[in-house]
Amino acid sequence: MDSRHKSHGSGAFALADFRSIGADCVFEAGVLVFHPQNIVLGRNVYVGHQSILKGYHRNEMRIGDETWIGQQCFFHSAGGLTIGAHVGIGPAVKILTSQHDEAGRDTPVLFSPIVTAKVVIEDDADIGIGAVILPGVTVGRGAVVGAGAVVTRDVPAYAVVAGVPAKFVRQR
User: Fold this and answer.
1) Domain count, the chain
2) Which phi and psi (to 5°) does residue 13 adopt?
3) Quick one: residue 149, left, alpha or beta (phi over 0 = left, psi -120 to 50 = alpha)?
4) Which of 42, 61, 99, 143 has its CA 20 to 30 A from that of 110?
């Protein structure tokens, strides 16, 4: 790579690079971590094969004790990301905390301003395989997000949501 090109790094990491990391965390093969200095992991966190924890130069990614993250997940914490304890996150889940703002037709979307908003997933929640959580969403304690759901709004505690966009199905 010549001096005209920049990179966010290789995603390679050492445990000492994290802001804080609890005991007994597991990182499977192929996990990439960016800006680990802004990532806090509780104890006994499992991160599945080929997942990407995309920390950011500001704000924080915080993942609670005994949370399980399936393979090929993508978490981006530009707006801040908090995942509670005892959370199950299925394979291929995407959690986004930034998006392009509307700047009008004369500005390509790619060059529109980026806005950020924190995502919070509270304790004991479960996020189904392939779900997408969009910026600014809170998933309440014990809530269940169905497989493939696209979550655009807050999910109440102990609610079950599913679909695109995710809609309330029932309380559990």
Assistant:
1) 1
2) -150, 160
3) beta
4) 61
Q: Is residue 10, in this structure, part of any structural domain at all?
A: no
CA 73-76-79 angle, to 5 degrees, is 150
- What's the rounded Cα separation, in Å, for the pair 118 and 154? 12
Boundaries of domain holding 39: 15-171
Supply the residues annotated as catalytic.
100
User: Among 30, 34, 133, 44, which residue's Cα sits nearest to residue 72?
Assistant: 30
Strand partners, 145: 127, 161
CATH code, domain with 145: 2.160.10.10
Q: Give mean pLDDT, residues 65-89.
A: 98
pTM: 0.94
Q: Is 39 exposed, middle or buried (0-12, 13-18, 19+ CB in 10 A)?
A: buried
Average pLDDT over residues 81-97: 98
Of the candidates 9, 46, 49, which has an alpha carbon nearest to the alpha carbon of residue 31?
49
The answer to the question of residue 2 being in a domain is: no
